[in-house]
C-alpha cells in the first residue's frame, strides 16, 4: 500500500452506508442475514475489521436489536464473524474470502446464471452512465480512485475478487440512485458466486484492469456515453468468459 492510501476497510466504509438499507417486509431476520452476509462476502467489511455497534446496525437496517442479534448468531454459526470480549473487542469479521478455483467447477442453474449476466450488463452500464453525469465531489472522486487503485494493486486472487466488487459498487454509489445501488449489489453478489468457480486468468485480469482504468477516466471527466460503453463491454467480456468456463 502506498503512503497515504486507504486500507480496504477505509475504502469500503462509505459503501456500507448505501449497501445496508432498511429492511422491508415480514422476513426481517432473513433480510438482515442476507444484507450483512453479502456485505461481508463482497469485502465491504474485510477480514479482521469490526462491524458497527449493534445500535448503529439496528438503526441502519431499521430492525429491532433482538432481530439483529438473531442475525448475528446466524453469522457466527457460519464462522463469518466472532465476538471478542475486553478492550479492543467487539464483533469482528472472520470470514476468509474464497480464492478463485483452480479449474472450472459447475454449480447452480445455468439459465439463471446467464440471466444474471444479462441483468448485470443493463444495471451496471446504466449506473456507470449515471455516475458520469453527476457533478462529483472531491470525496466521491477519491472514493472511486481509491477503489480502482485497490483492485489494480491486489496480488492475492481472493483479495482481488473482493476489491473488484468494491470498485463496481463504488461506481454504483456515485450514480446517486439507491435503487441502482441495490440492483448492482444483487448483480455483484450473483457474479461473485460465479467468478469464484473459475481460476483468475492473468490475461483476463490485465484486460479487466485496462477497462477499469478507462472507466475510471470516463466517469471522472463526465463522459457518460463512454462510461456506459466501457462498462457494457467489460460486462460482455466477463460474461463470455463465464459462458465458456461454466457448464
Describe the fold and architecture:
The protein has about 250 residues and is mostly helical. It is built from ten helices and two strands. It has a two-stranded antiparallel ribbon with strand order 1-2. Helix 5 (about 110-135) crosses helix 8 (about 180-195). The mean pLDDT is about 85.
The number of distinct structural domains comes to 2
Task: Sketch the topology as an H/E string, one letter per element.
Answer: HHHHEEHHHHHH
**What strand line-up does the widest sheet have?**
1-2
Q: What average pLDDT do the residues reach? A: 87
The name of the CATH superfamily of the largest domain reads: GntR ligand-binding domain-like
- Count helical runs: 10
Low-confidence stretches: none
CATH class of the largest domain: Mainly Alpha
- CATH architect. name of the largest domain: Up-down Bundle
- Report the biggest beta sheet as strand number plus sense, adding barrel if it closes: 2 strands, antiparallel
Q: In angstroms, what separates the terminal alpha carbons? A: 38 Å
Q: What share of the residues lie within helices? A: 55-70%
Secondary structure: number of strands: 2
Shape label:
globular
Question: Briefly, what is this?
Answer:
This protein is mostly helical and 247 residues long. Helices cover 66% and strands 3% of the residues. It folds into two domains: 8-93, Winged helix-like DNA-binding domain superfamily/Winged helix DNA-binding domain (Arc Repressor Mutant, subunit A), CATH 1.10.10; 110-245, Four Helix Bundle (Hemerythrin (Met), subunit A) (Up-down Bundle), CATH 1.20.120.
